[in-house]
Amino acid sequence: MTDTAPADVAAPSSGRTTLQLLRSLGSGPRGLTEAEAERRLARHGENVLPGTRPLSWPLLAARSLRDPFTVVLLCLGLVSATVAAWGTACVILVLVAVSCCLRSAGERRADSAMAGLRELVATTATVLRRPGADETASPAEHELPVSQLVPGDVVRLGPGDLIPADVRLLRAQGLTVQQAAFTGESVPADKRPVDVPADGESAHLCFQGGSVASGSASAVVLATGAGTRFAAAHRTVGAERGASAFDRSVHGISWTLIRFMLLTPPLVLMAGAALRGRGLETLPFAVAVAVGLTPEMLPVIVTTALARGSALLARTHGVIVKRLPALHDIGAVDILCVDKTGTLTQDRPAVDPARTDPDALHWAAVSAWWTLQLADLPTADALDEAVITHALAKDPAVTEAYDGITALPFDPVRRLATAVVRRPGALGTVTLAVKGSVENVLERCALDDAERASLLARAAEMSGDGLRLLAVATAERPARHRPGILPSPSGGGGSTADERGLTFTGFVAFTDALVPTAAQALRDLGERGVTVKVITGDHPGTAARALRDLGLAPGDIHTADALDALTDEELARLARRTTVFARCTPAHKARIVTALRAGGETTVGFLGDGVNDLPALRAADVGICPRDAVAAARDAADIVLAQPADRPGKDLTAIGHAITAGRHSSGNIATYLRVTLSSNLGNVIAMLSAGLLLPFLPMLPAQVLAQNLCFDAAQLSFAFDRPAAAALRRPTTLRPRDFLRFITGFGVLNAAADLATFGVLALALRSTAGPADEAAFHSGWFTENLLTQALVMLLLRTGRAPRTPGPVRWAVTSLAVVGVVLPLTPAAHPLGMTPLPPVYYALLAAVLALYAVALTAVKRRYVRQA
Ligand SMILES: Nc1ncnc2c1ncn2[C@@H]1O[C@H](COP(=O)(O)OP(=O)(O)OP(=O)(O)O)[C@@H](O)[C@H]1O
């Protein structure tokens, strides 16, 4: 067998017939043999996108150099080298090297941990393979990891499936494909086999990155992995989503700081020149002060805190975070939109015989059965399965009483499914069996207004009792019109002329139990400051009843058809005050989520499990799905609530655990930012003031950078901290303006402590004079700086002191020890420091005690006001 290069065969303008193509791929409608597939796997490699492989060390290191802080540090290093301040330049280089190494190591660890987690929720494809090397054996369907697909494989596709590679259709029934990840187009596209495709035609091709919105198909794989269009376009689902809450926060904070950093050196130079008549010789000091402001460990802390949180979440609650920043985003979520079916309810519908019309059940079963057979659907959806099971239990012959002719499977935009059947022997006529949502079926029935209104009222009453409904209708048509029966509807919904003038048959009613943990989970979310909104494709009455049973007030319910007339701004206002949106198509769900996100003030999560939730999962800041969601939803989601096998059933409380983990990690990042920035700002203010009062520099550049390095290293421990319970009670968003008040308040306090030390030093060193005075001053300030920083680390954490975790305690102790001991060691001399008189330590202890008292008092006030 031979197979052509994937890139060749993917060309849509190949003009080859399906048969020619299959031949050129060395395949056939019955797929490949296992032996041949193995050979091709060795030749083409696994079907994985290049971007999903862990990056190599050099690439990771190169990427960390692109970080804005690193770029600014390197520029400052360059400035120092230009004025021959080699010491400063070297220390900056060491700083950059250390932070890049730590960052690359952290990212590599995080990448492989994330790859392991993603593996746990990896998607599979239904593939036809023949056993061994036997060309004559019958093919069997196998559920294989998508990574194992090779060109020439024949795959089966059904609603909610991912398009696992670039494929060409062999057969299709009502197939529509959501290709937003590829084309940006949110309306699903119609797809059908074309025997001899014209140039530029692509209706017969489906590309990796898409997902089946409705219908079914079998298709042959043309290209896999790096050979797919998706890989070539270098686009990922995440990239097309726009800035998430995490990106906005970190980006905002970074740029605020960078502006400060860039302003500092000119400010120091100007102040030195104006007040002390100093020239360019102050430049290294000015550069060191700017470097002192940099939170260069921010990327390391962020990666470590998020990776630790994700790993712990997976281990303890089986929740899989597929994209690291999504852990921050879920902690920041203040609006969580959820679909109803399969999320708040079990999606295990059972027919309610007492409220079901027997005729409707009969025709619904005929429609469901023949749709399943004719459309080659890999699995029945839950409603169809319930209908078939119940009808077969009542009448085992129900499915044999007819021959199926053609079918149009369910599609969440049309909200209809239609099968065309014929009674054996009745050659002159065929019967259309149509089932779907109440409104969509009734509008196609031959009814007068009064009849329609009365049926709608009956449906509303049943929905109000919490029942899910299918409306069923039929129509007899002359068989000779068969070619006109059920032309393919458009991807945007649409209707066919055949589905007009139907005879209403009745309703099939279903009960669908609520997820047992849903009420508790919704209560918890409310208590944690998360507003829940329900966006469902179901009837408003059913949605309202479910919400009431879960203890939430549904308020005014809006149905999606009323939204189309609204502008985005009007929709955003409406969405903020509405709890339930019903009868939503996939596009409506996404539009509501986008409207809620508009303005960037709220962080919106979307929790959904079905094929009708895909666009909304992608539109949200963070997409979440339960573990039994359809493959495409699991692929589009950032977080999968896939609890361990020993905890069966849906567990919505897992979302609470994910939120806690997100807030925990973000809380630790916030602690780092508060501590490092307020301390750094205090140092800068103190150094600037002292620099203007003293005849010499208050600290040598090397000393500034050495203490910066020690402080940064100690603060890495914040990735292992435990924030206060209060920090977990509200959404945690890292907003620059929230930090500003804290940083300025505590920065000034820190500067006051530094300046008090300045007085203490003046007192303790009264007797000495000359250069020794300068070195002693530097030592004194170095020791004080590290001790105040240790104090700040301990007191400005949000967690309570007795519960300070081991790593933080160790880091604080080590920082204090280095501060006290370094000036007494041989390393003191090269750093321009000298031992201090004992009286200094006594006075310093008094300053530190006062500082601790002030810090505690101000922090208490701050917490009270927050
Ligand atoms: N297989 C089916 N055949 C015919 N009609 C169906 C089928 N499945 C669902 N429907 C009808 O379409 C309506 C909308 O279904 P859709 O899948 O969009 O939303 P849902 O699953 O009810 O709700 P949610 O959006 O909360 O998951 C249902 O209320 C039902 O009346």
Automatic annotation (TrEMBL):
It comes from the Bacteria. The chain crosses the membrane at residues 69-102, 257-277, 283-307, 739-764, 808-827, 839-858. Its EC number is 7.2.2.14. It catalyses: Mg(2+)(out) + ATP + H2O = Mg(2+)(in) + ADP + phosphate + H(+); ATP + H2O = ADP + phosphate + H(+). The keyword Membrane applies. It is found in: Cell inner membrane. InterPro entries: ATPase_P-typ_cation-transptr_C, ATPase_P-typ_cation-transptr_N, ATPase_P-typ_cyto_dom_N, ATPase_P-typ_P_site, ATPase_P-typ_TM_dom_sf, ATPase_P-typ_transduc_dom_A_sf, ATPase_P-type_domA, HAD-like_sf. It is a multi-pass membrane protein. Keywords: ATP-binding, Cell inner membrane, Cell membrane, Magnesium, Membrane, Nucleotide-binding, Phosphoprotein, Translocase, Transmembrane, Transmembrane helix. Its main location: membrane. Residues 12-85 form the Cation-transporting P-type ATPase N-terminal domain. Mediates magnesium influx to the cytosol. Belongs to the cation transport ATPase (P-type) (TC 3.A.3) family. Type IIIB subfamily. This is Magnesium-transporting ATPase, P-type 1. It comes from Streptomyces aureus. The gene is mgtA.
